C-alpha cells in the first residue's frame, strides 16, 4: 500500500490531509517540520511527500533541498499559501511534481495525489527534462520565470515585442510572464511549460489566430485563453468567444483593465492574502482617490477567499484589517459583508486591527459588537478583546 508523508506545522492541515489520503486507501505518516520530515524519510520509504512551505526549525524548501542533495528523489507536492507562491519557483528547480495553494479543496488534493502516484507526474511531469528557454530575441519578457521553470503565469503571443514589455511593466513582479513574437515559438513553449493564462493577439501577420488558439487549447487545456485586440465599434468580446477564446484584453493597456485582468485570473494577493484561516487585508498605500477602488477590489475577492477557508474545514475565520483607510463607512460595510458571508459558511469571525479600527466599527450597529484583537495570535487563542 502506498505511503504518504505529510509535513506541516499546522495540526489542522495535517488532519485534513490525512483524512483525504486515508480515504484514498493510502497509509499516512506525519511530521511537524522539515527536521522531523527528514527523520521520517530516513526510517521509512514513502511514495509521496506533501510538503508545506512555511514551517519552524526547517521549512519546506530547505527540507526539499536536503532530500535532493542526499539523493532522495521521492515525488513532492508542495503546499503553499498564495502569498508565498513565488517560493514555488525555486522549488521547481529541485523537481517538485506539483503544488497546491492553501486553503485547498479536498477534491483538488485527492486529484493531484492520484495524478502523481499513478505516474502522470502532476502538472509539471515527474522527472521531465528542463523546459526549453526562449530565444534571446524573445526572452526579454520571460523574467521572472525561472530557468527550466514549468509553471508560468502568463504567456503573451504578439508579433510586437513592445506588447509583452508593456504588460510586464504593469503586472506585479510575482506574476511570471513569457513573451513570444512568433506562433512557432509560442507553441514550442506550450509543449514544455504549463501556463495559467495565454494571451494571443488577434492580428498576427500570416497567422490565423483562431487556429493558433485551438492549437494552444490542445496543449494547455487548463489555461484561460484570452484574445488581445484593439477597441472597435464591433462587439469584439462576442467575436473572439466565437473564435474559441475565453475573454478579451484590449490594447492599448489601461491600468484599470489590467487590474480587472489580475482580479479575474489571479487571486489578487495585493489586496487580500490568505494564510490558513487568516484573511489579511493588504496595506493601502495609494492616493485618497483610490480608496474606493481599493475597497471594491477587496469586496470582489473576499467571498472566494472565505470559500477556501470553509473548504479547509475551519470553524473560524480571522480577518486582519491592519491599518486600513478609515474615512466614511467603507470599512464597516466591508467587515459586515465578510461577517455575513462567514455565517453563511457556518464560520465565526474574529477581527484583528489597530486601536482606531474599533472606533471606526463602533459607530455602526452591525459591527460594534464584533470581536477585535490586537494580533492574529490573540484572535486564534480567543483571548479577551
TrEMBL record:
The lineage of its organism: Bacteria, Pseudomonadati, Myxococcota, Myxococcia, Myxococcales. Pfam families: Response_reg. It comes from the Bacteria. The keyword Ribonucleoprotein does not apply. Keywords: Phosphoprotein. The modification 4-aspartylphosphate is found at residues 52, 201. One of its GO terms (biological process) is phosphorelay signal transduction system. PANTHER family: CHEMOTAXIS TWO-COMPONENT RESPONSE REGULATOR, STRESS RESPONSE REGULATOR PROTEIN 1. Gene3D superfamilies: 3.40.50.2300. Residues 3-117, 153-266 form the Response regulatory domain. This is Response regulator receiver protein. InterPro entries: Bact_response_regulator, CheY-like_superfamily, Sig_transdc_resp-reg_receiver.
Amino acid at each position: 500500500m502506498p505511503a504518504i508523508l505529510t509535513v506541516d506545522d499546522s495540526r489542522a492541515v495535517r488532519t485534513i490531509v490525512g483524512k483525504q489520503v486515508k480515504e484514498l486507501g493510502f497509509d499516512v505518516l506525519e511530521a511537524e517540520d522539515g527536521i522531523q520530515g527528514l527523520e521520517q524519510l530516513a526510517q521509512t520509504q514513502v511514495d509521496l511527500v506533501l510538503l508545506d512551505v512555511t514551517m519552524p526549525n526547517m521549512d519546506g524548501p530547505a527540507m526539499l533541498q536536503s532530500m535532493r542533495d542526499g539523493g532522495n528523489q521521492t515525488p513532492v507536492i508542495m503546499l503553499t499559501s498564495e502569498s508565498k507562491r513565488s517560493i514555488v519557483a525555486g522549488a521547481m528547480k529541485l523537481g517538485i511534481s506539483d503544488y497546491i495553494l492553501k486553503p485547498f479543496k479536498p477534491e483538488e488534493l485527492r486529484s493531484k495525489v492520484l495524478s502523481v502516484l499513478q505516474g502522470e507526474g502532476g502538472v509539471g511531469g515527474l522527472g521531465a527534462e528542463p523546459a526549453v528557454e526562449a530565444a534571446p530575441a524573445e526572452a526579454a519578457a520571460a523574467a521572472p520565470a525561472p530557468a527550466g521553470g514549468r509553471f508560468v503565469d502568463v504567456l503573451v503571443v504578439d508579433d510586437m515585442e513592445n506588447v509583452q514589455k508593456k504588460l510586464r511593466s504593469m503586472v506585479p513582479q510575482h506574476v511570471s510572464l513569457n513573451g513570444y513574437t512568433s506562433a512557432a515559438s509560442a507553441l514550442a513553449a506550450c509543449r514544455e511549460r504549463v501556463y495559467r493564462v495565454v494571451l494571443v493577439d488577434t492580428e498576427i501577420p500570416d497567422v490565423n489566430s483562431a487556429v493558433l488558439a485551438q492549437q494552444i487549447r490542445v496543449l494547455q487545456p487548463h489555461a484561460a485563453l484570452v484574445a488581445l485586440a484593439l477597441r472597435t465599434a464591433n462587439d469584439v468580446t462576442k467575436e473572439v468567444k466565437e473564435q474559441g477564446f475565453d475573454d478579451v484584453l484590449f490594447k492599448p493597456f489601461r491600468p484599470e483593465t489590467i487590474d480587472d485582468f489580475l482580479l479575474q485570473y489571479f487571486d489578487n494577493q495585493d489586496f487580500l492574502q490568505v494564510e490558513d484561516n487568516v484573511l489579511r487585508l493588504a496595506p493601502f498605500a495609494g492616493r485618497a482617490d483610490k480608496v474606493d477602488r481599493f475597497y471594491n477590489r477587496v469586496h470582489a475577492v473576499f467571498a472566494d477567499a472565505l470559500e477556501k477557508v470553509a473548504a479547509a474545514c475551519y470553524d473560524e475565520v480571522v480577518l486582519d484589517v491592519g491599518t486600513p483607510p478609515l474615512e466614511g463607512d467603507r470599512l464597516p460595510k466591508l467587515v459586515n459583508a465578510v461577517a455575513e458571508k462567514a455565517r453563511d459558511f457556518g464560520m465565526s469571525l474574529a477581527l484583528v486591527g489597530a486601536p482606531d479600527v474599533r472606533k471606526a466599527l463602533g459607530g455602526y450597529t452591525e459591527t460594534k459588537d464584533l470581536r477585535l484583537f490586537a494580533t492574529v495570535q490573540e484572535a486564534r487563542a480567543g483571548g479577551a478583546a
